[in-house]
Write a structure and sequence with these properties.
By secondary structure, the protein is an all-beta fold. The chain contains no helices and 36 strands. The strands form nine sheets. The chain has a four-stranded antiparallel beta sheet, with no helix packed on it. The radius of gyration is 22 Å and the shape is globular. The two termini are 14 Å apart. Belongs to the WD repeat EIF2A family. It comes from Coffea arabica (Arabian coffee). Keywords: Initiation factor, Protein biosynthesis, Repeat, Translation regulation, WD repeat. One of its GO terms (molecular function) is translation initiation factor activity.
Amino acid sequence: MATGQSPSLEILVREPDGFFIWNGPPFADGQPSVKLDKVQCSSAKFSEDGLKLMVMKSDSQISIYDCKTWREIRSFQVPNVLAATMSPCGTYLQTFQKSTSPQDKNVVLWRIDHGDSVHHLSQKNMTKATWPSIKFSLDEAIACRLATNEVQFFDPEDFSKGIVHRLRVPGVAAVELSKTPGAYVAAFVPESKGMPASVQIFATGKDVQSPVARRSFFRCSTVQLNWNSGSTGLLVLVQSDVDKTNQSYYGESKLNYLTTDGTHEGLVPLRKEGPVHDVQWSCSGKEFAVVYGFMPAMATVFDKKCNPLLELGSGPYNTIRWNPKGKFLCLAGFGNLPGDMAFWDYVEKKQLGTTKAECSVTSEWSPDGRYFMTATTAPRLQVDNGIKIFHHNGSLYFKEMFDKLYQNHQIGLVKLQNWASPWNP
């Protein structure tokens, strides 16, 4: 790293009374320094591009910070707010307020740059499938909303136009826009009256009503929809509450794969019976890794045609984390497993090292792909809260314990941010 260059990584740490910002590794003298003193808050969450931070400071105040300067750039007063989220590029803030009547426009979309509201709508309740109400592709080129029997599309640059077109999908219960580009939307329709559940892929163009790909499933309670970058492939993890084979207390899961060009539609050929524990695309979108099977679980990397490329062995694993550069993988067993971790160099097809991070609740790679962080957080665990940072080969770089650490809704307590690291593994 060049002399005098500001650190390329930052770490957000949230304790019960607020958050503060450390500079990220490598640390001078082996210890982080404080870049932003503690700010009182109840939660904090980054935009997808890492350039803005949303902080809920009280029951009604939401502040937006610029992560380059750590200055507050906008504050919103939203009474009775129950949830809030930013669009991927940090253009919009979306809030969900407690509703007092069915006519309440309790979901509001705000422009962060000028602070004005640009769209209002009513929503009875908030579930994983219905929040955020308005969903954006990662490049914010497409915006849509799940409604009764249809998907409604908006102009992301001008919400005053209202709904610009509608895609009719009878019974639709969940949708997922493709990442970048936002050229496709996947729609899930649950089982009904003896008809199987289905996932359909539609192009997001105005006059489109016919799917480019479709797959049906029986014994389907829930699905997870996982797009790759490039918007060419969709992994569909289908789960049922009951395993008809009586082999698993946790139900049954199957991993399906659909492509937007129609060249592939079917099950991913997993070599061991049992649940699918985790699946993750590489940053390129050209391969994906799966952890699956009854313990000891197996882990395999597949290409875009579902051909196995690399076997990562078996063990007490339920988590796979691919670093943002696509070179390194961490295979781990967290939650109710002992915390074993195996680090792999995917390019060289070799294991780099193994270690343990017991009682880990969250884990992720730094955006420069150089470090791997685990954290033990409340309320999941009330004791032994702390952070561990490992090198890409699994050797421990840093450890810090806390009286109490809290996790956020989706990204957990600890987040590493990256601006322009010169180190590219």
